[in-house]
Write a structure and sequence with these properties.
129 residues; alpha+beta; Nucleoside Triphosphate Pyrophosphohydrolase; six-stranded mixed beta sheet; globular
């Protein structure tokens, strides 16, 4: 029997001063949330905090879980687990090995993701509430 279970991805929706931090990996054309794979026995929340620190130099505090989204529309067998977080410290420094660029976006100037994109759904849900 073969089980094709999706792989979880811990994503941080990082808020600061009414804006959210989005990053663009080297292998992508669009901005996305700061995210990464949990290490063995690591919680999603701990993975999101670790990835934010490793990729941006920022310390964050998870405030709540926003939800989970399938990445099937992207052709990837992943489940995006999104945590809403706030910056608590650190100094922003882009991890050039992982990310090509990162920027703060106001909610009315987010990238124009396709309607089928998990990120379109994430931010539609996030804006609701």
């Amino acid at each position: 029997m073969h089980l094709d279970a999706p792989t979880p991805v811990a994503a941080a929706l990082i808020e600061r001063d009414g804006k959210v931090l989005l990053a663009r990996p080297h292998d992508a054309d669009v901005f996305a949330l700061v995210a990464g794979y949990p290490e063995p026995f690591e919680s999603i929340e701990a993975a999101a905090v670790r990835e934010a620190k490793e990729e941006t130099g920022l310390d964050i505090r998870i405030e709540r879980m926003l939800g989970t989204w399938s990445c099937e529309p992207m052709g990837r067998n992943l489940v995006l687990v999104v945590c809403v977080a706030r910056v608590t410290g650190g100094s922003f420094s882009l991890q050039a090995e992982e990310l090509a660029e990162a920027a703060w976006f106001s909610l009315d100037q987010l990238p124009d993701w396709p309607a089928t994109s998990p990120l379109h759904e994430v931010f539609t849900y996030y804006k609701l509430g």
